[in-house]
Specification:
Elements lengths: L1 H19 L28 E9 L6 E9 L2 E6 L14 E3 L1 H11 L8 E6 L4 E4 L6 E5 L4 E5 L3 H17 L2 H9 L10 H9 L4 H44 L5 E3 L5 H6 L51 E3 L5 H4 L3 E5 L2 E5 L31 H5 L17 E5 H7 L5 H11 L3 H14 L10 E3 L6 E6 L4 E9 L4 E7 L3 E13 L3 E7 L2 E5 L4 E4 L3 E5 L7 E12 L3 E7 L11 E8 L4 E8 L3 E6 L15 E5 L14 H4 L6 H4 L11 H8 L2 H15 L2 H6 L7 E3 L6 E3 L3 H7 L13
Parallel strand pairs: 1-4, 13-14
Antiparallel strand pairs: 1-2, 1-8, 2-3, 3-5, 6-7, 7-8, 9-10, 11-12, 15-16, 16-17, 17-18, 18-19, 18-20, 19-22, 20-21, 21-23, 22-23, 23-24, 24-25, 25-26, 26-27, 27-28, 29-30
């Protein structure tokens, strides 16, 4: 892009120098220098140039910070505003937007503030911008390298900035620049009359004048040849870029990376072409205060990749997927897969994400065990506990995996990109695809349970767990809010959505099996106001004494929406004659109880859907039109006896940098769980016994008025809701009300 910008002013400077030799200047372009050569008139014949103060979202620690923004020649630049540094002195003809901006500009003009160095530049030729629907002062600018979340002082100032951006985009488009460059004359003549007259006046001989004239024309001719070659190279580059942008606009499919790469089409689309225009008021990320946009220093902003852009999932999940349209032609391409005796066709997913962003490096495996693990007598342990509540049974760490129930709650958000895609579908008006993606997400929560025969640690009262995953665009907080009954509350923020709920698990031993019945409602709310709620199904673990342990999920899951659609999913219970276990079938119906789509798949592998309209021809098999909704990620290359997924392996990771930020109640600081992960089984058993003895006091503590720190019970429905403040306390490292629950009594 820099080469395209430097080519046009250079040509104008050369033409201006040639005309000074003595040629006719009436036909040459107007002289220009530097960036002014690239300026283009608006409809009123004036350049698009505005400046002023805008508030830019940086991160959760700094929040909204004022920056001086300047829009000139189709380039939006911004710099910091500091005492003694200040803002840049704007040249004449620049319109200042906002009262605060006018005061700063006046001080800069008076010389009381020095010119500030820009820390970020955005080229409007390859950018798009949108207004916020929830805040009349906010708007967003998207480019292929960053996303700027901006806010003005007043609604009037936002209108002025948006109008300036629209005008600048229309003036400084690629095609406009190409046409202006192409209008330059390729044939240039030189005149030496003025030079000859001046040399005659000095009394030089004619042969000397001719030699000087020949030398000058030879040098100018060589200079012109080199400039012409450079001009042609830049023009060829500009044509290549234009063709690339046109190809993007004419693509049939929209490829999303973590649910958000479809912004690429919006960013590079031309006005009036394609599905999106250059400027749209469609909301991109309404609740930007709850998105972590960078963890770096503000000085690094030009190299910052925002989490709203393409992101990779280090856990190995399918964060890159193809948003496939529901058509017979598209669904019959590429691969195929069998569900029972039915052959399902689906499109291949595009591997469009690469791990090139400045996100934390997650671990790929657990530490090597320090000790050799010892087995225990199962029958002697189980026979005395038949029919008892599992939460009251004291089990050795042999039956535990190195995760707590708080961390297991977050593990169910491994495929959160499905919710990102659901949000994008909703803002584009496709409510059916939204609920289909939500249903796939609800099923995907069970995918990690295959082979997971060990029990997670039961949290202590007041124990918490946080998860900050900028590569997935989410952050999560959970807390054990009650000991009797045992309740865990959680809350998660994503790109355009919020997810929360509290869960209670009742469990019983039945000799050869354990039945786990979840109690509680999960709620998903999108920023546009659409809400979905559902409850989990029953889980049974078989073959406790004889045979190989395995688990099954069975029951009915009803996903209720507050708008057009609702969904019902049935997790089929395993039978002796069933050759195709773990099946899930369901349907989506509208408010008139009319079935509009059907779902099928396996909770441990994948989910598909087809629309009822696509199978109106009863002679055709409905599964011929089935399209892929979700596919389970690949297992890790170095599995353990716990059969943790690649994502689960990262959940209990504790680095020295992270340990300094965590509250003393975080699950990663729990000693018995940490010893188990390290393979120190003797120490793990000792610590587990000590903490369980301490936990027996939890009921009395709760009855004496103990309350959770980050959640409170809502009066309307009785569920626990997040009250806020955790991430702010984390930034300040203020954990006053968070006791050391893992220490000595």
């Amino acid at each position: 892009m820099s080469s395209a910008r430097s080519m046009h002013p250079l040509c104008c400077i050369v033409l201006d120098r040639h005309s000074d030799v003595g040629g006719d200047r009436s036909s040459d372009p107007a002289p220009a220098g530097g960036d002014e050569a690239e300026s283009a008139p608006t409809e009123n014949g004036e350049d698009v140039a505005v400046a002023g103060v805008l508030y830019k979202w940086t991160n959760y620690g700094r929040g909204w910070r004022s920056r001086w923004f300047s829009l000139r020649h189709g380039v939006l630049s911004y710099s910091k505003i500091r005492p003694g540094d200040g803002v840049a002195k704007e040249e004449g003809g620049v319109r200042i937007i906002g009262d605060a901006s006018a005061k700063l500009s006046a001080r800069a003009a008076a010389g009381r503030q020095a010119s500030a160095k820009p820390v970020g530049i955005v080229y409007l030729k390859v950018s798009s911008f949108r207004e916020s629907k929830s805040d009349d002062r906010r708007f967003y600018i998207f480019s292929h390298t960053k996303t700027l979340h901006l806010k003005t002082d007043t609604e009037k100032d936002r209108v002025a900035w948006i109008q300036a951006l629209i005008l600048a985009r229309s003036v400084y488009s690629f095609r406009t620049l190409s046409e202006r460059i192409s209008s330059l004359s390729n044939g240039i003549t030189f005149s030496t009359n003025r030079l000859r007259d001046r040399m005659h006046a000095e009394g030089l001989r004619e042969d000397v004048i001719r030699d000087c004239e020949h030398i000058m024309l030879s040098e100018l001719s060589e200079y012109q040849r080199r400039v012409k070659l450079q001009y042609e190279e830049h023009l060829k580059f500009l044509g290549t870029v234009e063709q690339h942008l046109e190809d993007i606009n004419t693509e049939d499919e929209e490829t999303t990376c973590g649910g958000h790469l479809q912004l690429l089409k919006t960013e590079f689309s031309s006005s009036g072409h394609g599905k999106y225009s250059e400027y749209s008021t469609t909301e991109s990320s309404d609740d930007v205060e709850k998105q972590e946009t960078d963890d770096m220093s503000d000085d690094d902003e030009p190299n910052f990749f925002d989490t709203n852009e393409c992101f990779s999932d280090n856990s190995g999940s399918h964060s890159c997927s193809t948003l496939t349209r529901v058509t017979h032609h598209e669904c019959k391409n590429s691969g195929s897969e069998n569900i029972g005796d039915v052959k399902i066709m689906h499109s291949k997913e595009k591997d469009c994400c690469q791990d090139v962003f400045p996100y934390p490096e997650r671990r790929k495996k657990l530490p090597e065990p320090v000790e050799k693990e010892k087995s225990v007598g199962l029958w002697s342990l189980i026979k005395d506990n038949v029919g008892k509540d599992l939460t009251r049974v004291c089990l050795p760490v042999y039956f535990n995996e190195p995760l707590s129930s708080l961390q297991k709650c977050f593990e169910e958000l491994e495929y959160s990109q499905l919710l990102d895609e659901a949000y994008e579908y909703g803002i584009k008006g496709n409510s059916l695809m939204r609920i289909l993606k939500v249903a796939a997400f609800a099923v995907s929560a069970y995918a990690s349970s295959i082979g997971r025969i060990c029990k997670p640690f039961n949290p202590l009262l007041g124990e918490t767990y946080e998860a900050d995953f900028p590569e997935k665009g989410i952050r999560f907080i959970s807390e054990k809010v009650s000991h009797h009954p045992m309740l865990i509350a959680c809350y998660c923020e994503g790109k355009g959505w919020k997810f929360w709920g509290d869960s209670n698990l009742t469990s019983k031993f039945w000799g050869q099996s354990i039945q786990l019945d979840p109690v509680g409602i999960l709620t998903l709310e999108f920023d546009d106001g659409e809400i979905f709620q559902w409850s989990k199904v029953t889980t049974t673990i078989y073959n406790l004494i004889f045979g190989k342990l395995y688990c099954e999920h069975h029951g009915i899951m009803n996903i209720k929406g507050n708008r057009m659609f609702s969904c019902q999913l049935r997790f089929k219970e395993k039978s002796l004659l069933d050759r195709n276990p773990r099946q899930v079938v369901g349907f989506v119906e509208d408010t008139n109880k009319t079935k509009v789509a059907s779902l099928m798949g396996k909770w441990d592998d994948s989910m598909y859907y087809y629309k009822e309209d696509d199978v109106s021809n009863k002679a055709a098999m409905p599964t011929e039109n089935a399209c892929l909704l979700w596919k389970r990620s690949h297992p890790p290359t170095d599995p353990t006896r716990y059969n943790l997924t690649s994502f689960a392996i990262t959940l209990n990771e504790l680095t020295s940098e992270l340990q300094e930020k965590l509250p003393p109640t975080d699950s990663r600081l729990r000693p018995d769980q940490r010893h188990l992960e390290n393979g120190e089984y003797g120490k793990a058993n000792e610590e587990k016994l000590r903490l369980e003895q301490r936990q027996r006091m939890a009921r009395k503590i709760q009855e004496n008025g103990w309350k959770p720190r980050w959640f409170e019970r809502a009066s309307e429905d009785g569920t626990y809701r997040y009250i806020g403040g955790y991430w702010e306390a984390r930034e300040q490292k203020k954990w006053d009300r968070c006791p050391n629950i893992f220490g000595e009594v």
